[in-house]
Design goal:
The radius of gyration is 15 Å and the shape is globular. Strands 1-2-3-4-5-6 form a six-stranded mixed beta sheet, sandwiched between helices. The chain has a single domain, classed as Gcn5-related N-acetyltransferase (GNAT) (Aminopeptidase, 3-Layer(aba) Sandwich), CATH 3.40.630.30. The termini are far apart. The protein is built from four helices and six strands, in the order ββααβββαβα. The protein is of the alpha+beta class. It has helices at about 20-30, 35-45, 95-110, 125-135, and strands at about 1-5, 10, 55, 60-70, 80-90, 115-120. Helix 1 packs across helix 2 (about 35-45). Bound molecules: coenzyme A (COA). Coenzyme A binds near residues 87, 94, 96 and 128.
Length: about 150
């Protein structure tokens, strides 16, 4: 648990956070999908409960970041931190909540032996997320996703 900006508390993800995360996702995506988040959050808590964090303001979740450390995938033998899902309540953006979430998750990745952290961003659709990661020191990688329609 970390104190950051006054009133903001970063702590590990908990199963009880599902409803707050569903509400944030609904604000971002316009879709109410509790079953999706129940599955997602269950997955991350089973894999590594410390690798996913939430930001609380006045006891209410204002942002979340889900990730994990993996190795032996995509030719990456060494342990690598992956940030896979994130969201900050639009009412609380621009207050360094995303930055604090990332600092906490990166610290945990380091403790798990990771020397690098990766994420995937759709540059055409997620310009805000790209700018966020760039501000945090992420750089484009030579590793490219390949896709084929099925
Ligand atoms: C991207 C996001 C996490 C940023 O959260 P935030 O709490 O507002 O970000 P912070 O205040 O911590 O900003 C950290 C840095 O990123 C930059 N940044 C954040 N959002 C930005 C944006 N939209 N455009 C440009 N820069 C941005 C800030 O300027 C800041 O840089 P600085 O510290 O050098 O000033 C938030 O906007 C969000 O949740 N977006 C939607 C995510 C989404 O679609 N999720 C669903 C799919 S997984």
């Amino acid at each position: 648990m970390t104190e950051t900006t006054p009133g903001v508390r970063i702590r590990p993800l908990d199963e009880l956070d599902i409803s707050d995360i569903v509400a944030i996702d609904e604000k971002i995506s316009g879709r109410y999908r509790p079953e999706v988040w129940e599955r997602q959050i269950g997955y991350y808590l089973r894999r590594d409960p410390e690798s996913s964090v939430v930001a609380e303001i006045d006891g209410k979740v204002a942002g979340f970041m889900l990730g994990e450390v993996r190795s032996g995938e995509f030719g990456l033998e060494e342990p690598t931190g992956w940030i896979e899902v994130l969201g900050v309540d639009p009412a609380y953006r621009g207050k360094a909540i995303g930055r604090h979430l990332a600092e906490a998750i990166l610290e945990h990745f380091r403790q798990r032996g990771a020397h690098s952290v990766r994420t995937l961003v759709d540059e055409e659709k997620q310009g805000d997320i790209r700018s966020f990661f760039t501000a945090l020191g992420f750089e484009p990688s030579t590793m490219r996703p390949f896709v084929k329609t099925l």
